[in-house]
Amino acid sequence: MSLITITGYPASGKSSRARELKAFLETKAAGSKVVILLSETSHSLDIKRSAYDNSAAEKPARGALLTAIIRLLSPNTILIVDAPNYIKGFRYQIYCAAREVKVRLATVYVLTPQEQCRAWNKLREGDDRYSDDTLENLCLRYEEPSSMVRWDSPLFTLLWSDEVIPQTTLNAIWDATEKGKVTNPNSGTVAVMKAPTDALATLEKTTLSIMQQIMLSQDGFGGAVTLTLTLPASTSSPLKMTLPPRNVTLPELSRLKRQFVTAQKKAITLGTVERGSVDWSEEGVGKRFVVFLEEQLQR
């Protein structure tokens, strides 16, 4: 999936370029991907030009647009966002939202002189027209995209004077959506997987059971070499553990159990990320404890 952010002055011809780009991408995708054009003036959003007349109305309008973007991001989808996107901070928000679901990104800058934007705006009627004051204000506040920053890259500039988008540019945009770099989420924003509520109880019960079985297995035998362990509520196969050819004392086992439980409690408290997820079932805890004991007892 990929996300293409359209940006430019108000009344700069962004919507025309977005429709032209959508038609090209649909042809290239040939049914393998769904191309969606999200316009702020679409029926699903219905953001009026008057929303930019003041900050009180503009803020919820941008919020509604961002929510719609997040909702439409999905596998096998190319999403084109047709809106002014004139604030670099808002483009960064879009970038962060896209990064969380690992999509390819591209920014298309429709470069049109302000004089031409004013002329085109005067030709508009009704709700499709910006007030003169709003148009001037938006042009004044516009923050141009830059290929030097990651949230605007790769950046493609379209000139208003071109009758159609150059084929080389169209092909480059297609390559960005198909072969562009996928930016992984920031580790600080990755959702943390919390341990189940009974993880601590399972940890204590499982380690205590294994410790007791080790001690009982040594009574009168002078130390077992291979031990078969069963877990209290597990329906899986018993665990196998190799003991050293000596008696393992209770104080030694108690010390190792405390070390293991202390380390595991940190994971329970802090949670784990996707690549470091932990199995908190009896079987998962038991397997880790057995490996830990074997490593420590052989030293």
From TrEMBL:
Q: Which Pfam families match?
A: KTI12
Q: Which InterPro entries match?
A: KTI12/PSTK (IPR013641), P-loop_NTPase (IPR027417)
Top-level division of the source organism's lineage = Eukaryota
Q: What is the lineage of its organism?
A: Eukaryota, Fungi, Dikarya, Basidiomycota, Agaricomycotina
Annotated protein name in UniProt: Chromatin associated protein KTI12
Q: Which family does it belong to?
A: Belongs to the KTI12 family.
User: Which UniProt key words apply to this protein?
Assistant: ATP-binding, Nucleotide-binding
> Which GO molecular-function terms appear in the entry?
ATP binding
